[in-house]
Every structure is written in structure tokens, then in C-alpha cells.
Amino acid sequence: MEENNDNVAPEGIKYDTLQVYEGANFKTLLTRKYKERKPYLAPNPAIIKSFIPGTIRKIFIKEGQKIMKGDELLILEAMKMCNELRAPIDGVVKKIHCKSGQIVANKVVLIELEEVKVKSKSRSKK
Fold first, then answer.
1. Cβ–Cβ under 8 Å, residues 36 and 46
2. What does the DSSP 8-state code read for residue 23?
3. What CATH number does the domain containing 68 carry?
């Protein structure tokens, strides 16, 4: 008795099912590169990474220090340009993974922050 499998072509090629927008399924051949790719992870604003290889010129913060969004964290010199890295969120400096004068590669974790929820002051009505 012959088994009917919708995912196998008559030539014996096994098709994969690819789910796309709104749950639509398609039968297709997926490459090995596609199957072994890293899943997308949304960027974490509490982890500050280098965006270019360079040298740490100056660090303006210390571990345990409270910071506000926009505060200057450090200066990364790359290609004769000094780049100021600023805090993307309000928080506390959890860990500093670099030191002044250190050469860093691209996408290296420089600073870890701990997000702090700031309570907004309610305005009193008169």
C-alpha cells in the first residue's frame, strides 16, 4: 500500500513547510544556510556594544552609578573620530566590561545597565 505524504515530491525530494505572514504555509526547499541561521533577537537597550572597532578613550561612569537617558557613558575613538556613547535608557550601571585605553572589536559588550522605572510626578490640579 502506498503512503501519501504531501511533503514528499514524486522524485523523493522532501519539501519543507515555510510559515509566512498571517499563518500561510508554503511547501518549498530550504537551504542548509537558512535552516542553520541564528534567530533574530531584538536589541537590548540595557547592553551597550561597540558599533565599530576602536579604542576606549575615556569612561565617564562607575559601576553602581545612577544614569539618565542621554548621559555620556564613554568615548570610543575609531578612524580618528571620537564617538560619544550615551545612555539609551534610565538606569544603574551594572557592569563595565572595558577600561580606558583598551582596544575593542566590533559588537563587543562595553557596558551593562539595569533599567530603572522612574515614577512620574503627578501634577496637582488647582
1. no
2. G
3. 2.40.50.100
Contacts of 102 (CB under 8 A, 6+ apart): 55, 56
pLDDT for 11 beyond 90: no
- Over 50: is that where the pLDDT of 1 sits? no
Q: Would you state the pLDDT for residue 51?
A: 95
Q: What is the pTM of this model?
A: 0.67
In terms of residue numbers, what domain contains 109?
47-115
- Cβ count near 106 (within 10 Å): 11
| pLDDT per position as a tens digit, 36-90 | 999 888 999 999 999 999 999 999 999 999 999 999 999 999 999 999 999 999 9
Q: Which long-range contacts (CB under 8 A, 24 or more apart) does 82-89 make?
A: 82/57, 83/51, 83/52, 83/54, 85/48, 85/110, 85/111, 87/113, 88/45, 88/48, 89/45, 89/46, 89/113, 89/115
Cell numbers linked to 114: 539595569
The residues that bridge with 109 in the sheet, in sequence order, are 49
Q: Is residue 6 part of a domain?
A: no
